[in-house]
Amino acid sequence: MTVLPVCLGALLLxxxxxxxxxxxxxxxxxxxASSPDAAAPADDPGPPPAARDGEAETLPESPAPADEAPxxxxxxxxxxxxxSPDLDVRGCLRAVQQDYPGTLEANQAGTAxxxxxxxxxxxxxxxxxxPSFLKPGYLELATVSGVYGVWAGVTGGIxxxxxxxxxxxxxxxxxxxxxxxxxxxxxxxxGAGAGYVVxxxxxxxxxxxxxxxxxxxxxxxxxISTLPAVYDLVNVPWYIEDELTFGLPLLGGGLGALTGFxxxxxxRPDIAEVSMMNTGGWIGGVxxxxxxxxxxxWGPRNLKVGLLNASTYGLGKSIGLLAGAGAxxxxxYTWGETLLGDFGAVLGIILFGATSxxxxxxxxxxxxxxxxxxxxxxxxxGKMATTTVSVAVAAxxxxxxxTTTAGLLVWHELTGAPVMRTDTLPVDVAPxxxxxPSRDGRDLAPVYGVxxxx
Length: 454
Prior knowledge:
The protein has about 450 residues and is mainly alpha-helical. It is about 65% helix and about 5% strand.
């Protein structure tokens, strides 16, 4: 909560309630030289007259109480001066904007949110109850890095075993197995330690860790989906097939993890943003794979199916990841609500897909289709069945996602929770005031400029 004085100072300066810093503003004119009586300030009443004998000394009247502050000002004051350190300051400021639109306090709440975006990342979480050396995000990043180290050790052992068989090397298989276990443990511990050191040096949070994990997952997915395309396009020599099959996923996962961590360092996402991006990625990937399967089903026989599926699947994933990342900047859903969307999409796939398969395997499906087509073509029936199932899966996925999304919208409206995010508009540039420590560290100097959010 150390940024609240910064926000309060910014609001006071923008609303004209605070005095300008020393040394700024127009100089005061010198006092004119006149009689000694005129030297005293005009508003100085002087000492009160002494009470005469026999009279009781009268005390000055207390000033009249000021008018009670309006509700909007009180609500804003509760946000800027929270009584509890557990108060969600951003949610409180957003509530002021929604409850009192068009007021000065609503504008000041928006300014405070922009200052918070600069001074405090959105992914900052409440203090954890874990020990200080296990801060939020540290354990996750260390664990995922350790898993990658174990993965690298096991991959090396598999390649050692296959090369020993290919080149007929006289190596005891048990020695390779033992070496694989030792290397996996050693690399896992080294990876976990390196992950923790990096987390401590960069001061990450859970948004960082989730972005790192998502990058590794999607890098692995892209690498695995690329393998069929590589084998379709290139005549891979037999002696490097195993290195390509097992090494490319390991390389893709590592590059994806580094990419996710680098993007997190630039964007500083929170858990909800990463979760929504993952939702868009897997839904787009499934849709792209369905398109590839249908094209391969109805296309020419000499079509390179591996290259086609890899292309449509990769394109669908890319579009889905970008769409999910964009939606995360607009929708104010939590990661749990995003998980409900995933659940709805999976449930729709299961229901619609199982229904279509049950119909196609029923006794009435084949005669009815033959009657419609006017022919008993088994190959045509198989193509129609494949398309029917794929379309049902796509429809179920979309229906489940839309149903859960609509339900969340209704729930937000009933509870008054914001649907759209107000702290991350796509393009929002507005005047802002921030404060930086002076050179001697004893004071804060105002910095005037613009705040941009995207």
